[in-house]
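Quick one, probably user error.
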């Protein structure tokens, strides 16, 4: 049974949700803490108690993106299962995350702000680069088990995810294309696994 949220925790989540809507509609520069407080149905003081600035709110939205991504590819290496089976599960989990309109909205917000402020993009990406998600760890474990060639796990993980995003993220984010059908999603996942293992499987 999940623990019920405290009133403070609920208000924090309400503020973050309101911030996402505010940034999506008005952009980072056009968004105001007054309007955000009204959306969240809290006082302006409450907003500032949780987040001292819009920049802090932005960083927390980026963290939400990272958390969603980490959970999507949080797979554990299993010696008893084939590599392709494990990678297929990871690929489909990633595709399901990318299918979320909320996730794409978050990415639009962060992408627009990164373009406006290269310094903020640099500091944020540097922070993200210090974190390892489940796929990096899975690759490291597969290398240790002698199943994959020795490789920089971060580089290999980005290659794997890049294959998926080429069809199930960037076209939707930048060109408003329809998301792949369930059948197309399976093909994308299969191809990502095949290409990755063709390069790195021992």
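Nope, works fine. Designed sequence:
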């Amino acid at each position: 049974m999940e623990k019920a949220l405290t009133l403070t925790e609920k208000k924090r989540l309400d503020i973050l949700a309101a911030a996402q809507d505010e940034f999506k509609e008005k952009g980072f520069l056009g968004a105001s803490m007054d309007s955000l407080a009204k959306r969240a149905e809290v006082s302006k003081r409450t907003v500032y108690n949780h987040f001292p600035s819009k920049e802090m709110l932005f960083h927390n939205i980026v963290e939400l993106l990272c958390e969603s991504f980490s959970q999507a590819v949080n797979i554990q290496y299993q010696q008893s299962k084939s590599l392709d089976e494990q990678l297929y599960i990871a690929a489909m989990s990633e595709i399901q995350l990318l299918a979320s309109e909320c996730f794409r909205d978050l990415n639009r917000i962060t992408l627009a702000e990164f373009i406006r402020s290269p310094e903020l993009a640099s500091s944020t990406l540097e922070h993200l680069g210090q974190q390892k998600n489940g796929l990096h760890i899975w690759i490291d474990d597969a290398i240790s088990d002698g199943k994959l060639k020795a490789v920089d796990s971060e580089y290999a993980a980005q290659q794997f995810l890049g294959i998926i995003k080429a069809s199930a993220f960037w076209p939707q984010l930048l060109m408003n294309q329809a998301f792949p059908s369930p059948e197309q999603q399976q093909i994308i996942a299969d191809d990502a696994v095949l290409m990755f293992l063709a390069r790195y499987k021992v």
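The chain has two domains: 1-52, 62-200.
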